[in-house]
Amino acid sequence: MTTSPAPTRQFDLRRLYTAAALIPTVYLIIVHLAPWALTLLLIAVGSIALLELYRLSFQSRLNNILVGVGLAVFVLTIARSHMSLPLPELLLGGAFALVMTAMAAGTSSAYRWKDPLLALLGVLYVGIPLSTVVSARSLPSGAFLVLFLAVVTWASDSAAYYAGTLWGKHPLMPSISPKKTYEGLLGGLMGAIAAAVLAQMWFASELSWTDAVVLGILLTLTGLVGDLFESAIKRRAGVKDSGGILPGHGGMLDRIDSLLFTAPTFYYYVAYVRGLLPSL
Question: Taking a C-beta distance cutoff of 8 angstroms, is the pair 80, 130 a contact?
Fold first, then answer.
């Protein structure tokens, strides 16, 4: 009687190649270019992610006019920090525009309210979190704070991926994401805390050692929620990845799903808990 060999766990080397190409570019934009360069990057990245989300949400009902209005509201949401637009009024105006557009575009009565709500959900899910990155960049030493956010989020994601691939045996939430394991979560926590402490010592002196540890834990947990949230969307749509624009990572939404939850967590912590808001 023969037994089949146990499946081997393999890393997708394309992840490393993609990261090696993107990390220097993102570092340059965050640290060495003017704040508006980061805003433009977030608009480009967020627009791609939002289009992927709309394809998953609308599927065969994808309405180009409705998506266009949703993208316009999204861009305004990201850029509002540079134009002094109040967020509540902007979102109310955007919701009204989406509803009116859906009615004028001839959306079937069965989806007349569902489709604009899906379009607005995309703005809330992608736009507002990315706008907090712009807000964090405007804080004192904002470039290094945003770099801290990017480094810790990336370290948590990467450590969780490699720890889960090597040692993952106990599923975390198999009904949503079969590959997520408790071992991966532990690896993500350790990687995030280590990266946060090193970043605090190297370039984020505005934060204390305690802040670094707390943020390492918070960003890992909120990043996990973001990953599971997107996994639930993909499972509902019946797809593995949101797209294929990033080799080894899938779509843009797959790449920033954690950031969409870590960014607002980080901003509100450093701005209000740590008190780094500039004095008026």
Answer: no
Instruction: Give the Cβ contact number of residue 92 at 10 Å.
Output: 11
- Read off the DSSP letter of residue 250: B
Instruction: From residue 53, give the alpha-carbon distance in Å to each of 57, 129, 201.
Output: 6, 15, 38
Q: How far apart are CA 191 and CA 161, in angstroms?
A: 11
Residues 6+ apart with CB under 8 A from 256: 45, 46, 49, 130
Smallest CA-to-CA distance from 167 within 176, 175, 159 is with 159
Half-sphere exposure of residue 38: CA atoms within 13 angstroms, side-chain side: 27
What is the pLDDT tens value at each position of the chain, 280 positions in all? Answer: 444 444 445 555 666 777 777 888 999 999 999 999 999 999 999 999 998 998 888 777 666 667 777 888 888 888 777 666 677 767 777 777 776 776 665 556 666 667 777 888 888 899 989 999 999 999 989 999 999 999 999 999 999 988 988 998 989 888 888 888 999 999 999 999 999 999 999 999 999 999 999 999 999 999 999 999 999 998 888 888 888 777 766 789 999 999 999 999 999 999 999 888 765 4
Q: What is the pTM of this model?
A: 0.86
Cα–Cα distance measured from residue 274 to residue 213, given in angstroms and rounded to the nearest whole number: 13
Longest dimension (CA), the chain: 78
- Which amino acid is present at 86? P
Domain parsing of the chain, residue ranges: 34-138, 141-280
